[in-house]
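Aim 2 progress update. The chain analyzed this quarter is reproduced below.
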Amino acid sequence: MGKRIRAQRRGSSPKNRVSSHRFPGASRIPRGVEEVATVMELVHSPVHTAPLVRVRFEDGSETHLVATEGIAVGQEIAMGGNVSLKPGNITELGQIPEGTPINNVELRPGDGGRIARSGGNSAILETRMGDRVRIRMPSGSLKDLPAKCRAAIGILAGHGRSEKPLMKAGAAHYKAKARGKLYPTVSGVAMNPVDHPHGGGNHQAVHGPNSIARTAPPGQKVGHIAPSRTGKMRGKKKE
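Predicted structure tokens:
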């Protein structure tokens, strides 16, 4: 008789949830705001890979935004349709010249920003096509978006965060803990047969098929889940 595998034991326990009190606040572009905001402070957020900025509007309200590289305390951030091409300013994609690096790009007008939000990332505005705009994603792929979508001008701060090695297991532990990730992770082939369907054997390998049906029960559902192809490409290609 086996026992519950690691994925089952994890469940939805509080240990593997992100602590909400570690979020400084929502970091989205506010909807329907066309005014100038002042940067009050730079904020470190354990659950974000880029720093945040706390900005204050003329009416006294405050919000958080992801920080663009080169932004400073006391700097003014303009939001609206007619803004200067200054790092940190926020405007519609249809108002931004071609070849400009942008970050915190909206997928739909008013959603607050969804693309290029991790530290050091940026997208490039490739071309404008009437009411559509083509941008080059951080991955290199191209995507067409409505020209009414907004974005921040410049490259997101936090570049180079992944260049420094973690050096020790403790650093990896706290990095995973801040984001509610399960750590450490052990591969199934390194376990015993009683712990995982891939465990056991005289050497570490999946002894048998690695594909599993979508309808398999939880303790059995490991490996390639309902794959359309596995890469082995056996047999001759049909003409």
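The first strand starts at residue 36 and ends at 43. The mean pLDDT is 88. These observations will guide the mutagenesis experiments scheduled for the next reporting period.
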